[in-house]
């Protein structure tokens, strides 16, 4: 029997824990980016889950410490995810929407571990330049963003005061909002490939970097690098149109303004990343901004598209 009924609301504890798991997963993702940017993915050799075939590392290299730290953080994330599933099911009623999303998050967490293991076991790390590495990396990043979305939706629906049960909500403008989310997802995937190109083929100057992008002698990762900023502009324009036409009034206005501000910040960080020739710290800051923007956009979409039946113009408090 649920500890808290739909009418009585939910434990503040499970709400805080859900948001905390989301924040921790962002930290795990950022550390994973450090692994890639520093070429530390092979720090444990082609061994998984053991590191260099052993449990205890004697006089480990810095690359080994970086990779091993990421694995330890991922293990904690898995345990936290299982705890969140158990707590969510204990604290919610049978038709609670958060249950659906926490199960999705759990599946995506295991898938994240599988994709990470394949990158290591197949040697798609460090200085590997194969096309298959780009494919695995794209799948990994897409899965990561879907995981963050599922965790954000779990925390969001646990935090709602109304409109969190199946059967008492309706879906509005779901199709066009999905297009905006998918466009943003593709921007993230193209960004991961651009970052991989920056890591594998560093440029000495901005002019040299631009020359790499349009040289027929450059590696294919560099020749497709321009796709990321182009997609970012198109997706950004679509997101702004979506927000101004559907979220610029009522109780969603503050969150909509926040999304627009985060989008503008991402453009500034992206420009800085280019002009500074993508140093590791700038890549991490840019990725953090992208993750926060993605989470805010997902939550805004949920507030706009999943509303209590009879709610008018998004004025209901959810």
Pattern of helices and strands: HHHHEHHHHHHE
CA radius of gyration: 21 Å
Average residue pLDDT: 85
For the sheet with most strands, the description reads:
2 strands, antiparallel
Number of domains: 2
Q: Which percent band covers the strand fraction?
A: under 5%
Polypeptide structure, described:
The protein is built from 10 helices and 2 strands. The protein is mostly helical. It folds into 2 domains: 1-166; 168-318, no CATH class. It has a two-stranded antiparallel sheet with strand order 1-2. Helix 2 (62-91) packs antiparallel against helix 3 (97-121), helix 4 crosses helix 10 and helix 9 packs antiparallel against helix 10.
Strand and helix map with partners:
Layout: H1 12-37, H2 62-91, H3 97-121, H4 131-159, E1 169-171, H5 174-200, H6 206-213, H7 220-223, H8 227-246, H9 253-275, H10 280-305, E2 306-308
Antiparallel strand pairs: 1-2
Organism: Alloacidobacterium dinghuense
Subcellular location: Membrane
Pathway: Porphyrin-containing compound metabolism
What would a concise description of this structure say?
By secondary structure, the protein is an all-alpha fold.
List keywords for this structure.
mainly alpha, 10 helices, globular, two-stranded antiparallel sheet, 2 domains, disordered N terminus, 2 strands, 318 residues
